[in-house]
Description:
Blueprint: H1 6-9, H2 12-15, H3 23-51, H4 63-82, H5 88-100
Helix pairs in contact: 3-4, 3-5
Amino acid sequence: MKTIPLSQIAPFPRDVQKGGATSSEKNKELMEACQQFESLFLNILLKQMRKTVPDSGFIPRSMERDIYESMFDEVIAQKTASTDGFGLAEMIYRQLIQKSGNKNP
């Protein structure tokens, strides 16, 4: 499998200071992106965790139940990511700031 360098996919470090946005606006956008990534990760984690729980049969399996559980997992993941629940977003943010050479997080 051929590996593509990250700089070719997302040239973040070179583009941090370009454009009309200030550094603090870019940092805020970066933190929001990191929180969205954490939310996505937590959503996948919750879905996989739910698969390990045996079905009791108390509430029958249905499309409605699956939709509800999916929506519930998504909201829990979003709330957890936005309230510094796991800290994954903060770690990713610090790493990207460090890689970009920006010393003002």
